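Researcher: We're teaching a course module on how sequence relates to structure. For the next exercise, students receive a sequence and then see the predicted structure as tokens, so they can try to spot secondary structure elements on their own. Here is the exercise chain.
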Amino acid sequence: MGKVTLQDIAEVVGVSKNTVSKALRGLDGVSDEVRKKILSTATKMGYQIKNSHKMLNVAVLCREDFLVESTFWANVLLGIQNAARSNNIALSVTAVDIEGEENLDIPSTINKDLTNGIVIVGTLNNKFIKKIKDLEIPLVIVDHYSEEINSDYINSANEKGIYDAINYLIQNGHKKIGFIGNNEWSYSFKKRYQAYIMYMEEFKIQIDDKFVWLDINLKGPNFLEDMDYFKKKINVNDTNFPTAWICANDKIALAFMRSLSELNIKVPEDVSMIGFDNIEMGAISYPPLTTINVPKQQLGVKAIQQLVYRINNPEKIYEDIRLNTNLIVRGSVKKIT
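Model: And here is the predicted structure for the students to work with:
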């Protein structure tokens, strides 16, 4: 018998050539039972399996607050951990503090000789990312994007989410739609604001600049306790006050809803609300929050899958991957006539 090929193994096992390739390279998407059968068959047929069980060392870098945040980033990191486990990857997760980021300090967990890949989660400044990129270690970046840095990127389809939110509000009779975010925050926040401007114009809905608030600063675990920002801005006696609002994330929407409630303004009877991210708290709020679902764990899973691909295919063109979002309809939007 000549040289054993992937197709030969596939025909014996009864699976596709692609499935055999994934199993032999340790990639996700193959059940444990099928993987074992493929490995056993390949060995019996004399196929030389290269590095099929090699443990990869991957460094995950993120901001300090991501490790204590229990709503969004915890789920992304969980996805990374689950995918790493099934891909025979040893993870080291490092919180990058502000001083280290500004000084462009390479974390001690990264070793050019021992680190096989790096995942950057969230927005770190581009100079810092470039310093990491210069190490020439395979790199994947999650929930961030920069034209200055050639890399693989994993993001959610922010524009699609905002389109769905605006379209749903219009279907429910709303023509005065405000927006709350912060244009200095993350990449995803900027994209959501830009999409709001673009699709409001596309739907021919007039934007009132008085009700586009881009200076909110609600961070940390006590974001719901800081109501001053909203109470200074809310004026439902203004005849142009929006009947509906889109918030750049669920935390903002929940804080806004609480502020309205304290001012005896009811959601959705008086004001409708749509958030973004689909964090667990939104499902149990009163009323339950209509939101745009981001596949948080899948962002992490896809990052690891793409990193393994990049490690095995260093010369392939970089990929900009967007995972789809979807509208979750609950109880915070009222139909008006």
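Model: If you want an answer key for the exercise: The radius of gyration is 24 Å. Residues 9 and 42 are 6 Å apart (CA to CA).
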